[in-house]
Amino acid sequence: MTECDPKAMKKAAAEKAVDEYVKDGMTVGLGTGSTAYFAIMRVAELVKQGYRLKCVATSQQTEDIAVENGIEVVDINDVDYIDVTIDGADEVDPKLNLIKGLGGALLREKIVAAATQMEVIVVDESKIVESLGVKTSLPVEVCRFGHVRTAYGLKLQGCEPVLRMKGGEPFVSDGGNYIYDCKFPQIDKPFFLQSAIDTIPGVVECGLFLNMAAAAVVAHKDGTVTEMKC
Length: 230
Ligand SMILES: O=C[C@H](O)[C@H](O)[C@H](O)COP(=O)(O)O
Description:
Number of domains: 2
CATH topology of the largest domain: Rossmann fold
Number of strands: 15
CATH architecture of the largest domain: 3-Layer(aba) Sandwich
Bound molecules: ribose-5-phosphate
Radius of gyration: 17 Å
Strand content: 25-35%
CATH class of the largest domain: Alpha Beta
Shape: globular
């Protein structure tokens, strides 16, 4: 059996999620990243077919792609709630708790997820883990002011925080903040860790998305797509 390449897997998961969850007349949250990209393109196809959709973007990059492809993007402040959001993730555990933010969009993604009735995650099977933190670092968005002190507070939680760089300069998020990528050996107690991180002065948002996802659509190397639900 031929194995699907990573791009084909992302496309398969994203298209299945849009086809299953996005209905005419909905307000839809558009995620950020290389997997969510295929969901945005599928939403654009639905709009061309005549679906009346209002969309909320989780990043400037996503908004640009959506607008270029004929999708109506509205301000999150102008909607009461979002029916469904289709977004990617960096790790997904068996309870659908997530690590997100390797693409730098965690803050807007979390605000959009919190306003969403049905948060649907699209990933390939490599993102499924038994325990969060085993594969990737946990991104934490922090204020630029005093960021070295904030990083010290993060280090006290048992990780090695590394300031994210881009082109020789610190990476700056859509919110104008820095991001520290925090490698933990493993995150055994994600709810405790999130509470502890959230109390550190200077932390804007952390990339743990706990009890937020309702379903994960997972593409596999053998070409199949399965679904995890809470
Ligand atoms: O900040 C970025 C987001 O959380 C992405 O959804 C996440 O990093 C997954 O991105 P990708 O689908 O490109 O692996």
